[in-house]
Amino acid sequence: MKRLVLASGSPRRKELLEQMNLHFDIIVSGFEEHLSLSVPPSELVKQLAYGKANDVYTNQSERVVIGADTVVTLDHNVLGKPESREHARQMLRSLSGRTHIVYSGVTILSHDKKVDFHEATEVTFWELTDEEIETYLNTGESFDKAGGYGIQGFGAAFVKRIHGDYYSVVGLPIARTLRELKAFGIVPEIQH
Ligand SMILES: Cc1cn([C@H]2C[C@H](O)[C@@H](COP(=O)(O)OP(=O)(O)OP(=O)(O)O)O2)c(=O)[nH]c1=O
């Protein structure tokens, strides 16, 4: 049986794989993310996902490695994780009352195969007041998340509409990932 490795420090990605009853190890990659690559966001997230997976993959033939990356785009600007409270505030103000796209890219690597894909999900926010934004910033939830919000947390209060895979917004399009993992011989253990 191949050994699945998640090349991610994201607690959300870990929880989603656990939710599906997959057994895996975690090795966090030291790959440096640069959001400035001049490629479309759908390519960018795949390139960053590949960078993370490839950093952890060490040519061990029994390993299947998953890397993933998530960004938010608004008017062709790419928003990663906020670097400060002010940066998070600016991001949330720019997302207020608008529709943005969340891109998640995934790479799965083994010694003889590489699969990569992305999902794009449209998220529309209600108009946010300054007070709502400040209250949200106080939760501290913004700081490790692309676009400065977490749809799975208090950020749920901002979401008017979503079109696409919810789990991709959280960081890992889990259904598509499971489907692709099958080709690597990785299937969840179903408990009877
Ligand atoms: C938009 C949004 C993003 N996010 C998260 C998913 C990702 O973890 C994070 C984007 O950062 P990433 O660089 O994709 O991932 P990461 O740094 O958390 O983990 P690693 O690089 O080790 O794999 O934003 C949410 O949790 N909820 C949301 O609603």
From TrEMBL:
This is dTTP/UTP pyrophosphatase. InterPro entries: ITPase-like_fam (IPR029001), Maf-like (IPR003697). Its EC number is 3.6.1.9. HAMAP family: Maf. It is found in: Cytoplasm. SUPFAM superfamilies: ITPase-like (SSF52972). Nucleoside triphosphate pyrophosphatase that hydrolyzes dTTP and UTP. May have a dual role in cell division arrest and in preventing the incorporation of modified nucleotides into cellular nucleic acids. The active site is at D69 (proton acceptor).
